[in-house]
Amino acid sequence: MRPFIATVGIVLAIGMSVPLTAASAAVTTPTAAVKTHPPTAHPRTRRATPPPEHPLLGVSCVSSKHCVAVGERYSARGAKVKPLAEVWNGRKWATTAVKLPRSATAGFLDGISCPSARRCVAVGAYLVGGNHTRALAESWNGRTWTESRPPDPGGDPNVLLDAVSCVSARYCVAVGSSTTAELAGAALMERWNGRAWAEKTVRFPAGNESGDMNGVSCPSARRCLAVGGYYLRTGGTRALAEWWNGRTWSRARPPLPGYAKSPIDDDVSCASPTSCVVVGTDNSTSADIGGFSLSWYRGKWGSARVSRHAALSAVSCPSPKDCLAVGRLVTAAGRLIPPSAGRWNGKRWRLALVPHPRTRGRLAAGYLDDVKCLSSTDCVAVGAAVNTAETPAGFSEFWNGRAWRLVRVA
């Protein structure tokens, strides 16, 4: 998932990297230690050849031997950005070709959902003209990607899709944003029936600048929860959540933790129609970023703090009392920003670091953008590693219930 942004037109110009501005407060020691493994060796590590420049932004798995990850690929340093897709066969990642629409000058894929090994839907955006974005949707049949065309709201806005959740090959819900040049915005919801998309916009509450829907989870065709946030004209941000009942969207009103002064909901995972977990980040100040979670279980909301120094990107819940959230830690000035993960047992979170990737033989700052758990002992997370002079290089992490394993991508 992309970090929450105000203006969609700048996304393709800067890539999907998380800002590397360090916080002034020192990071606390993680409460749970994780056994780490050295990065996978590669014969070209010692050469001057730079690593592949392709951050991974989304992942979906149907088994331990079949996952599909999506993101963006740079054709050359600073040149055209193209959508990226990689397939995991249980041993290694392999790249598959994704074509942009003819009118596009650049594009990326941000979210993906695979109801089966031969059926996936991925969403993102592409750039047309000088600085306009349009929604991008691609369908995977196990061999090739085929473009579909989500409808754009009227008024020539900038449109992008951030996330998608598929109940079946004929029922998917994608979410994102529609923002005009004047920064008037609306949350965007699109439904896929296997042949065409149907569009619906949801206005933000009065007094907003613009916003975005960042995540969606559909445990059934009649129950989806979409989450995101919006900017206030008076400053700060507010979290946003919407329920889908199979016919209409309605505002969900979860309680916010008292310490979250400027919250954004980043992602959501529903283990069942009666159980969902939302993760978010409080962006009150750069020195006090704090990760929080909201749990919805059988009609009741609850909240918990993940860490004062965690920024969360995604969450996956194989069961109501077992979730894994990923993102990054915020460290003192001048230090690396390490990727991190938190485990939820239904009552509290335990945060831990994950193995650091290397770029050009050196430890790099890193973040995890998405995660998918088939069970409590089988999870895959994807993200990117960044050195200050480099474009993000994608990497993946595999969790077996005890330790993380860093795996090179294609």
Outline the secondary-structure elements.
Layout: H1 11-14, E1 56-63, E2 66-74, E3 81-88, E4 93-96, E5 106-116, E6 119-128, E7 132-140, E8 145-148, E9 158-168, E10 171-179, E11 185-192, E12 197-203, E13 208-220, E14 223-232, E15 237-244, E16 249-251, E17 263-272, E18 275-282, E19 290-297, E20 300-307, E21 310-319, E22 322-329, E23 339-344, E24 349-353, E25 358-359, E26 362-363, E27 365-375, E28 378-386, E29 393-399, E30 404-407
Antiparallel strand pairs: 1-2, 2-3, 3-4, 5-6, 6-7, 7-8, 9-10, 10-11, 11-12, 13-14, 14-15, 15-16, 17-18, 18-19, 19-20, 21-22, 22-23, 23-24, 25-26, 27-28, 28-29, 29-30
Descriptive notes:
This protein has one helix at 11-14; strands at 56-63, 66-74, 81-88, 93-96, 106-116, 119-128, 132-140, 145-148, 158-168, 171-179, 185-192, 197-203, 208-220, 223-232, 237-244, 249-251, 263-272, 275-282, 290-297, 300-307, 310-319, 322-329, 339-344, 349-353, 358-359, 362-363, 365-375, 378-386, 393-399, 404-407. Strands 1-2-3-4 form a four-stranded antiparallel β-sheet, with no helix packed on it. It has one helix and 30 strands. A hairpin with a 2-residue loop joins β19 (290-297) and β20. It is an all-beta fold. The protein has a single domain (8-41, 52-407), classed as YVTN repeat-like/Quinoprotein amine dehydrogenase (Methylamine Dehydrogenase, Chain H, 7 Propeller).
